[in-house]
Amino acid sequence: MPDPLAPAFPPTEPIPVHRGSTSLRDSFASLQIRNYRRFQGSQLLAHTAGWMQRIATDWLVLELTGNIAAVGVTIFLQWGPMLLLGPYGGVIADRFSKRRLLIGVYTAFGLLSALLATLALTGVVELWHVYAISVVIGCVFVVESPARVVLVTEMVEPRLLQNAISLNASVFHFGGFIGPAVAGLIIAAAGSGWAIAVNAVAALVVVITLATLRSDELRIIPVQPRQSGQIRQALQYVRSKPTIFWPMILLMFVAVFGMSLPVILTGVADEVYDSGSTGYGLYTSLVAIGALTGALLSTRMRTLRLRTIIIAALVYGTLQALAGLAPVYGLFLPLLIGIGIARLIYAIMADSLVQLSCNPGIRGRVMSFYVIIMVGGQAIGGPLMGGLAEWLGPQTALIISGAVPAAAAIVIGVLIARSGALRLQVRLKRGESIVAIVGRSQITPPER
């Protein structure tokens, strides 16, 4: 009897993403599915508005306290519940209807956002209000993320699954860049409360969209029966697959250090260039421009490999460190665009590789671990990088936030090469890759 958790793809081989033509139409092929197209439209709004609320909340705390470290605490409270409850969110996603779960989740998001926006707009908000609501939102998010990921696989036919996962990751990460940019503009023009209110409206749109999906066009994944050891089973599955395990290890460093960029940019805007919320909006807008470019480039990917994910993380970290070293404002700004491109390409490639390497029956639990690392890392990294920015200065914190992920990418690349009996080879022949990772038996001596 075959193992139900057997890998869908060989763990050490390239995973094809596009076959045949690579026209712009083929890059967005999964949007031809009505349910998927409508859902992703609502998700683009939801992710953008969700990040608007997170950034507006951070700025609200900065206004209330004047302390960057307090902003880091807010991020910890927003993401912290995932550290404790994340695996159970994945179990819930595998056991129940994903569509019904998400309707409940976004209803809760809308009510909580409306409450925080009302407190802010009426001027009665206090720090403990923000902290309490952030914790509850974090608890709701525990279920939302794995349920959303698995629902995507129920919307499209198998031949479009790779494209759908890539676009879903693009929407998620692109919203993470657009949201802060829009939030910066709204905060500067009208205040944090209105930026938070947008998320309440976005949540309502998602609920309506989910309720009106065509049920007969969904490919429902059978729910998993309740049994003991489901979390342990998922951990063993992750450890057994290099295409899942190593991206998660690398993500630990990227999430803790690299993804706290919004916290550091508040300090850069406030202390380094004295540009206030307007400058903060400009910085996040430039990163968003890079993100848009990265999202478009990601739809053209032909293969997913561990080595390309490692290289992407290395480039991303290096650019972020260089932004901290930038001697002049004119160099700092274009580097933000490069950061947006590199980070989104890295994030989408890593997200897609993990999902495509995972059996659907256990995908909710596996992706819950992935999200735990991503948001849990930000929960730890928020106060850590906020404290470093307060202690060492925003520019030094920015250097550290890029240098650590870049160093981690190099170390992990060496470990993978050694464990797979691989070597780095530089090829100078025309028509061949300049740099390749090959097996020992494939290494050719340099030409004399």
Task: Write up this protein.
It is a single chain. Helix content is 74%, strand content 3%. Helix 2 (34-65) packs antiparallel against helix 3 (68-95), helix 9 runs antiparallel to helix 13 and helix 14 crosses helix 15. It has a two-stranded antiparallel sheet. It starts with 14 loop residues before the first strand and ends in a 9-residue tail after the last strand. It has one domain (28-442): MFS general substrate transporter like domains (Growth Hormone, Chain: A, Up-down Bundle). The chain contains 15 helices and four strands. The model is unreliable at 1-14, 421-428 and 431-448 (pLDDT under 50). With 448 residues, the chain is mainly alpha-helical.
Main attributes?
membrane, MFS_dom, TM_effector, MFS family permease, 448 residues, Growth Hormone, Chain: A, mainly alpha, cell membrane, 15 helices, disordered N terminus, two-stranded antiparallel sheet
Level of helix content?
A: over 70%
What composes the largest sheet? Answer: 2 strands, antiparallel
Order of strands, main sheet, comes to 1-2
Structural class from helices and strands? mainly alpha
Compute the number of strand runs.
4
Mean pLDDT: 79
What's the structural domain tally?
Answer: 1
Which word captures the global form?
A: globular
Pattern of helices and strands: EHHHHHHHHHHHEHHHHEE
